[in-house]
């Protein structure tokens, strides 16, 4: 079965204009929903379908959700984006910038061709510092009442720092936290001593990759006792790489798809999370890429466009865009080149100055 490009393009275009009823409970996450639609169109080389009027309007909407606040604790300003403020007078918690919304907002702006010049990078640096906890992980907002803190938030923070080319707070603490999250199965968990999860594993490996890339090269003593400069390798920070590889490879099921945890069913999005992890490790040759493609195109690709979570369900924008990204990993002829550690086509990555 072939990829039905025109139907997928129409699917994402519809969702950018009007969201169906099932998305009602995600109203406060419009920034994320918009990202999956824009990403899907870009993967299909169809962002030019967006009118200039819509592009400019959406950029303004994104910046309308940019929040600049003052911290009494540090006596400094901090900034980020919120997911979406419901109502004309948002409540205090809605006003707080969030790591997820900030990461999605920056990605949306890059997809829409914005130069990010309206973002106060120093204030975003301060926001990341306020979100980091003593253990090296992050909470989703700077609020003292925030309890949402795990590997996902750490990955969002590393993504923000990378896209804006700003400093990351206490890199060593975060590296140590990531290492603590590899469990006995080999995969990484959202928090130390929890169950290994494919999404958490991707977040851990991608965070390691981005953090290690930000560390200056180290000087090591060569075999001839002279000092040589050697770049850090992110895989050196993985406590048990062999067990990790075995765990990832065993996520592929007889259907060709992947599950996210031991003894769970396959799911379209894990074709992205698991393959992304293997791509980072340079180990994608250990799975059947043809079986992945068959699972996505023949089982979860919907006849009206988009991809569903599992065969037989209705499609949604998250699984649709991640399904396309999973295909893009191994199909450079029909898709743009994509990043492995950050969920964006390479052509959208900002040029570091």
UniProtKB/TrEMBL annotation:
Similarity annotation: Belongs to the protein prenyltransferase subunit beta family.
Keywords: Metal-binding, Prenyltransferase, Repeat, Transferase, Zinc
Gene3D superfamilies: 1.50.10.20
Protein name: Geranylgeranyltransferase I beta subunit Cwg2
Native organism: Schizosaccharomyces octosporus (strain yFS286) (Fission yeast)
InterPro entries xref list: PGGT1B-like (IPR045089), Prenyltrans (IPR001330), Terpenoid_cyclase/PrenylTrfase (IPR008930)
Species lineage: Eukaryota, Fungi, Dikarya, Ascomycota, Taphrinomycotina
Any one GO cellular component localisation term in the record: CAAX-protein geranylgeranyltransferase complex
Cofactor(s) this protein cannot do without: Zn(2+)
The organism's place on the tree of life at top rank: Eukaryota
PANTHER family in the record: GERANYLGERANYL TRANSFERASE TYPE BETA SUBUNIT, GERANYLGERANYL TRANSFERASE TYPE-1 SUBUNIT BETA
Prenyltransferase alpha-alpha toroid domain span: 3-343
GO terms for MF: CAAX-protein geranylgeranyltransferase activity; metal ion binding
